[in-house]
Amino acid sequence: MKLSRVTPFTLLAASCQAAYVQFQDCADAVTNKSLIPESFRAGVEQGRDGFEWRFDVIAGQADRNACEIDVGDVIPRFTVIDYGSDIKELSGEIVNMSCYTSEWLGPRAHFTIASSFKRSAFLDTFRTTLEITTKDNESLSCIRAILTPAAQEPTRLLSLWLPIATFVLTCIAACWPAQQTTKSLTTKNGRIVRAIDLLAYIQFIFFSGALSLRYPGFFQPLVGLCSWSTLMLPAGLVETNSPYPRAGVKDGIYEHNGTITGAPGLELLTQMTGSPVKPQSWMNTFVLSLIIFFFLYLSSYISFRLSIRKPKPKLTVSTLGAQLKDRYWTVVRLFLSCFMLPISAWATYQFLDDQIFGYRNSAMAIFILIVLLAGFWWSWTRDSEMGSLVIQSPGRLNKNPESGRQYYALVLFSLMFLRGSVIGGLQTYTSVQLGILLGCELVQLLAMTLWTRFACFISLTGLLSVSRLALFALHIGFVPGLASHSGRMLVAYIILCWHVIVLTCVFLLPALLDMAHLMMYGRAVTLSDAERGTSVREVPRPIQRDQTDIEELQKSEPIKNGDANRFTRASPSDFNQLLLEMILKREANNPQIGPISQKALSEFLKEVGGKEKKADIEKTPEVFSDSSSTLVDSRCSKEEIKPMPDTLVDDLVAHLFSEENSAIRSTPLHNTLNRPINEYFISSSHNTYLRGRQVAARSKLKGYIATLSQGCRSVEVDCWDGRDGQPIVKHGYSLTTSISFRSVIETINNYAFFASDLPLWLSLEVHCGPSQRDIMARTMLEVFRSSLVVEPLNGSSQKLPSPNQLRGKILLKVKVAQNPEPLQESLAPEYLHLDGPQEDLERGDCQDLPGDLLQSLAVYGASRRLPKDAEFDTHRNFIYSVSERNFKKHTKDHRSLELAGTQHLVRVYPDPNRVDSSNFDPLQCWRHGVQMAALNCQTEDFCMSLNQAMFHGSLGYVVKASPQPTQIRLQVDVLMARGLKVSTGNEPVYVKMKLLVPDTSNQKRRTTTMLVQGPDVAFDENLEMSVETNYPHLTFLQWSVKTMSNGRTMPISSGIAKIDNLKEGYRVLPLGEPLNNEGRLLCKISI
C-alpha cells in the first residue's frame, strides 16, 4: 500500500501544461520494417504565426532492433482535420531520436517530431494522422490520434480556481461559529446544506464531463470535444490493461510533467486515490475512506461536545456510547451524501474487464458495494432524518409525515447509487448511459414534486435538479451522428457557460455575502454575555407572529439569556418560587409571598383557578389535607394559617401541574344524546384492517382492536370472494394480505363496546358474489345476534333513532342499487332466531330469507354515491359515500351539500392516491355537516389529532350545532413548561399557539425563544387571539413547543383541544406527540 500516491488535486492540476491525446495504430499491415507505436504524447506551445506542436513517439520493430533505423531515411507527414476548416497536409521534422532498451520489451526508438499549424477556434480539437515513411514512400508506421489542445492560461486558472475557491468559501461559511439564536441556527444549517450541494454539483460537472460518446472512457475528459474536465484538469490516463483496447485505443497518455503518479486529476478529485487499475488503489481507497469517516466522526463529536455549555454533564461509558451512537447517524448521512456516487462508480468500474471473480480488485469492489448498501439501509431504517443533509428543506416537505421524508431520502440515495453504477459500469454503452442518467434526474425531479409539490422549484435543491436535467438533455447533442461539429461545439459552450452561472450565482455570490455578513455581524451572543449582566427586559419581543415557523424564527429576537440562571438553570424549588411570583404578579397587589388564609386560597382556586364553587376548600378541607398534599394544615384555624413553608409552595405547584388540573374537560358540555342520529358527528375509520400504508401492507385484526379501543364508532370492512368459498377482508388490487371475514366479525363483536356503548356502524364495501354475500349476512346474524339492528325501532318511523335509543347496537352500511325496491320493514320472526341457540342458524334456518339478505340488514345504513345533481331521495334515509376529491368539488366556492332538512348521512373517505395512509383535513367536512369523516386511524398525524380532539370524552358522538356568528377572544398566559424531553443542552425552544377555525384564516401567536438545558423552562408571556367565526363549536386551539433541528423547525411536543372543551383559569395543557413527551404546559386561560 502506497498512501504517498494520494496527491492533492490542486498540485496535480497546476502541473498540467500540454494537450490530451488518444491514438490508435492505423497501419494496414505489419512487416519486419514496420515501426509499431507503443506511446504517443503531444505538447503544444503558442508561437508567432501559429502553434508549435511537439510529438513524442515510442515505437519498436518486430524481430528487429528499432534503434538501428536510419533517421535520415525517415519522413513524418501529417494529415490534420481541423474541424473548422479543410483537411491539411503538413510535414514534420524529426528533431531528436534516442534509443533505450527495456528489460522486458527490448530495444525501443524514441522520436521527437516537431510541426506547426494554426488552430481555428478556441478549445477546438484536431484529428490527425501521422504517417512515418521512408524516402521511397514505404510506410513504416501509421498513427491516428485525437488531439485536444490545452486551454489558455487564464481559462485554465479560472476553471481550476472557481470551483475550488467557491467550495472553500462555502465550507468556511458553513463552519463559522453561529450565534446562539434560532435565526443563526436556521442560516447555519442552510449554509451546511449549500456546501454539500456544491460538492455534489462539482461531482456532477466532472462526471458529466467525463462521459465520452466518441470513445468509451469514464476517466477520459472529453465530451463532445469540450468539457469542464478538459478546461480544469485536461488529463487522462489510458493503460494497456484497461477496457480501452476494445475500442481500438491502444495507449495514450497525457504529458504530466513529473507528477507523482500521473493519475488524472478527475480521479483524484472524485475518488480520492490513483488509477483504479493500479494494484494498490483499492487498499488505498479502503484505508482512506476509513480515515475520512473517522475524521468526520471525530469532528462531529468534538463539535457536539463544544456546543454543550458549562457545566458539562459527567462523561461515563454509557453516556459516551449514547453520544457516539447519536453522532453516527449524522456522520453516515454526511459521508454517504458526499461519497456514495463516486465510490459506487469506482466500484462498478472494476467489472468492465469481464473478470469479476478471482481478482482482488473485483472482490474489494463487491465488498465496498455491500458496505455502502448495508450502511445506507441500516441507517435509513433507524433514522427518519436520513438524507436531511442533502435536502434543502423545501417547505412542504417539513409538513409531510415522518414517513414522507424517509421515503424521499430513500429515493434520493437510491438515485445516487444508480447514477454511480451507471457511470462506472456502462462505459462501453455511452448512449444507454446518458439515457439512464437523464432518467435519474427526471425521477428525482418528479419525486421532489410529489413530496414537496411545486415549492421545490424555488429551493436550492430544486434549482440544481432542474439544471442537471437540462444539462443532461443538452448532452444528447454529443451523440455521434446527431449533430455537426459546430453544433456540438455550440452545445459545449452552452454547458460551460451554464456551469459558470450556477457556480457563480447559486454558490459563489451567496458564499461571499455570507462571509461579509459573518465578518461584520458575526460576534455571537452567548451565555457568557448573560453572566456579565445582560437583562431579559432589554431584548425586544417578536413583532410578526402570523408568519410560518421559519419566518417567525428568522424575524424573532435573540434568545433570552439575561435571566438564564433563573429561567433555565434553576432547581425545581426555584422554579416553584418563580411560578408563584408569576401568579402573584397577576393576581395580587402585593406580589410578596406571605401568610395565606384558607379563605384566600379557596377564593384563588374558585375564581382565579377556575374551580366550581362546590370546591370551596373551607367546606372540604380534606381535599388538600391528605398525605399526598399539605396545602392547608387542618389543625390551623380557618381565619389564618402560618406563612407557607417551601413544602406548601411545592404542593401548590404540584397541584397546578397535576392531571386533575387539566385544561381539557373529561366530558363535553351540552352534548345530549337524544337527538336523531343524523344530527351528530360520528368518529369514523377508513380501511380499519390496515396498520400501515395502503399498498403492499398486511391486513390485521389489531387494526379493529386498536380503533375500537379508542372509541371509534364507524369501522370499515372491505369484503372479497375467498378462494375457499368463504369471504375475506383485504384492500383490493393493492398487494395487501387478507384475513377471514368471520374473524373480523368476531373481533368486532368482542371489542364493539369496549370504550363506548353508543351505536357502532359497520361500513361494508362488498365485492363478493351472491353466494358469499349470503354467507356474510348469515355470519353477522350468527355472531352479533341481538346486537345487530335488523328492523326499524318502534316509534322512529318519522325520524331516525337517537344514539341513546341505539345503545349497544350495531348498524350496517351497505351499498344498494340506485333505484331499489322498498325494503321490508322487518324480517319475519321465523327467519330470525336471534335469541335462540346458534345451531339454528348453522343448520340453515336462514336459507329461505327473501331477497338480498345483506341489503335487508342495512336498516338505517343503505348506502349510495353522492348524486352530482343534488337530487336526494326524500322517502327514506341514505348514507352517501363520497371521496375526498369529489367532496371538494361539491363544496367548491363554499357551496353546501344541500342536505339541510333531510335525514341523510354523508361519509367522506380519503382519496386512493394517499398510498402512505395520510389523512385529509376533517374540519372542512364537519363545517359542511358531514357526519362521518373517515380517517386512516393508523396514521398519527395532525388530522388524526384534530379528530381525537373533536371526539374527546364524547364516546364517539358529538351533536351538531347551527352556525352562529360569534366573536371569540382568547387570552393565554404561557407561564411554564415542565417535563420537556430535550436531547441536548442549550436548545432554543418557544411555545406556539394556533387558533384553528374552519371559515377564516388561522390565528397564530408565539412566545419569545428561550434556551433550555433541562426539563423545565419558564416563559411568562401573554398571548392574545381574536377571531370572528360562524362555527364556534368547530374552533380548536393547538399548542406546541418547538425547536430547531437540521435547519428545520421541529416540534418537541404538542396538543390540541376544542375551545368549548377548555376550562378557564390556571390550567395545564398536556404535551404529548410527536416526540412521546409527557410534559405539561401551565397557562392561564381566559375565553
From TrEMBL:
GO terms for biological process: lipid catabolic process; phosphatidylinositol-mediated signaling; release of sequestered calcium ion into cytosol. The chain crosses the membrane at residues 158-178, 198-215, 286-308, 328-349, 361-380, 407-426, 457-478, 490-513. Its EC number is 3.1.4.11. Pfam families: PI-PLC-X, PI-PLC-Y. The keyword Lipid metabolism applies. One of its GO terms (molecular function) is phosphatidylinositol-4,5-bisphosphate phospholipase C activity. PANTHER family: 1-PHOSPHATIDYLINOSITOL 4,5-BISPHOSPHATE PHOSPHODIESTERASE BETA-4, PHOSPHOINOSITIDE-SPECIFIC PHOSPHOLIPASE C FAMILY PROTEIN. This is phosphoinositide phospholipase C. It comes from Fusarium oxysporum f. sp. raphani.
